Amino acid sequence: MSGGGTAIAVDAVGGDHAPDAVVEGAITALSRDPSLAVLLVGPEHVVADAAKGVERLSPVVATEVIEMEESPTQAVRTKRDSSIAVGCRRVKEGKAAGFFSAGNTGAVLAAGTLAIGRIPGVSRPAIGAVFSSSSRRDFLRATAMAPAAITPVATEVGTSRNPSGTCMRTA
């Protein structure tokens, strides 16, 4: 990417309303942040058409797509040229500062862990979302993944003893 800005890889085919909603969101983000560049990752017919005439939007071809109902780990291991795997590799290679996908969350976590790795001392990946509020500044809510032996229970959820609204116990 030219211009020295921040490049973010974006999965063009992830999510319920992809690729249209994803492309529209990428173009909106580019219009709001002149230092942003987007690497739009997906099938050639999608990313090449979307990038035509849009400054700072570069197509990155991926020949495979991981569907929502697929097993995340198996899909990442067998679909090495999926939009999720290719996007994560762009981060590993230093060609993107981050990766965004509204697709198969488990596959994004698996691909990120396999391609990029973990920060030393961090044992589990986390999912984060930015929330906006009219009464306070934007904030990030992150959820760390619990081990498979943990299951949710309905006791004390959302009480003063457990204000986060979740309660976990080992299976």
Walk me through the structure.
32% of the residues are buried. The chain has five helices and eight strands; from the N terminus they run βαβαβααβαββββ. By secondary structure, the protein is an alpha/beta fold. The C terminus is likely disordered. α3 packs across α5 and α4 packs parallel to α5. The protein has a four-stranded parallel β-sheet with strand order 3-2-1-4. Strands 5-6 form a two-stranded antiparallel sheet. Helices cover 29% and strands 23% of the residues.
Name the descriptors.
171 residues; 5 helices; two-stranded antiparallel sheet; 4-stranded parallel β-sheet; alpha/beta; 8 strands; disordered C terminus
Describe how the helices and strands are arranged.
Elements: E1 6-11, H1 20-32, E2 36-42, H2 44-51, E3 57-61, H3 72-78, H4 83-92, E4 98-100, H5 105-116, E5 126-131, E6 139-144, E7 150-152, E8 168-170
Parallel strand pairs: 1-2, 1-4, 2-3
Antiparallel strand pairs: 5-6, 7-8
Helix pairs in contact: 3-5, 4-5
